[in-house]
Amino acid sequence: MRIALLAPLPPEQTGIADYAAHLSAVLQAAGVEVVCPLRGCGVDLQRTEAALAAFDWSTVDLAHAELGGGRLGEFQALRWLQQHRPQLPLTATVHDPERLVWRRASLPWPLRWLGRLPSPLPQLAALLADPLTLREERRVAQGLARVITLTELGGRLLAKRMRLSAGRQVSIAHGNLIIDAQPLPPAAPLRLLYFGFIYRGKGIEDLLDALAATLQRRPDLQGRIRLTLAGGSAPEIAFGPRGNYLDELRERARERQLDAVLDWALDLPSADIARCIQAHHVLVLPYRESKKLSLLGEMRGTSGALSWANACGRGAITSDARAFAEEVREGNGLTYPQGDIAALSTCIEQAADQPERVVQWAEQAARIGAARAWPKTAERFQQLFAEVCQGARR
User: Partner of 316 for a Cys bridge, out of 218, 333, 366, 394, CB 3.0 to 4.6 A?
Assistant: First the structure.
């Protein structure tokens, strides 16, 4: 079997690029030939269309796209293929359900002038154009042989919003690397870790505030809790029109007297990620839903950081944003209401006071990690692709 993978790839710094690279590697190890026609196109839609036109699509059995992360190239590629290669079977993994892309590549001409004006007018233009966006998404989704989501909740919402017929949507959990188990660090101090790309919207401010509240309420925990902020800080995501986000976080930590208990591990090399996670007890993901996106739908995807936690045998404390509650429902962590700093503080306190629970979370996370190892995930994709290709030949 030879498939075309339509996806961002490293060195692009996105979780979806990492996911696509792992999926490609394990599929090839399982005997599936994977080609990447859009490699190097980035977010340039003109280069994407040129690459699509130049590729010989008769040489592949199926095209599979990775959709999400605010990118449009892969979605536009599916639209192009449905128009120019209608006999080619198409599948896609949707990382940000309940929508495929959330916004159009271009606004209709009456709204284009709004898109050039200061915020919030471009957002208003996107909202006004949403009926057109949704119509395009549904047309693409209904033309796919299978639509894959990483969570069951995301799958249910996506199937309903895209009006998919029964059997077209499949849930395949995020794959995990196979990582040698390491014991938890000594129980004290409790080592908390935020791991992921560092930019606004991840709720990192809530985590700093919650830790400060915990230490203020429980002075006896001073010296018994440490927090590490680790992850990517590429300029295009850490620096924006509102200023340097990293400096804002450092200032917030100083104001809350957290410097003595806060560590930084920015731009970790891939080879050091597992070591960093396993040097901690619990991963904390304090994400908040975007209020702007909530006007367009519910984002119910998951996080690659949680797959790392499972692979490394570490539990997690997460907000109830996205589909995180589903991801920690099997006894591998706690969930609290997003934005509720007091509730997050209570979760931190419980982890510090009950080290036996932290051990239980870690053990369960390791079991989940083993069940979701990338080779097993590749088997599910390989079976799905084979079914789609067999159905296309009938």
Answer: 333
Domain with CATH 3.40.50.2000 in the chain: 2-175+373-393, 190-371
Determine the Cα–Cα distance for residues 39 and 54; give it in Å rounded to an integer: 13
What is the 8-class DSSP label of residue 221?
G
Determine the Cα angle at 153 with ends 278 and 146, to 5°: 100
Residue from 120, 154, 71, 68 nearest 292 by CA: 120
Residue type, 267: D
- Provide Rg for the chain, Cα atoms: 22
b/e for 197-212, b at 16 or more Cβ within 10 A?
bbbeebbbbbbbbbbb
Predicted model pTM:
0.91
- In CATH, 2-175+373-393 is 3.30.9.10: no
pLDDT digits (tens, 9 = 90+) for 28-83: 999 999 999 999 998 899 999 999 999 999 999 999 999 999 899 999 999 999 99
Q: Which amino acid is at 372?
A: R
Q: How far is CA 95 from CA 83, 127, 203, 316, in A?
A: 24, 21, 20, 20
